[in-house]
Amino acid sequence: MLFTYGLLEDGKDLVHDDGDADLELVPNLVEKVALPILHYEVSHCWDMLSQQETMNAIAATKLIVQHVSHESEALADLLVSIRTRLADAVANLTVCSISIYIN
Question: What are the sequence ranges of the domains in the chain?
Answer without folding.
Answer: 2-91
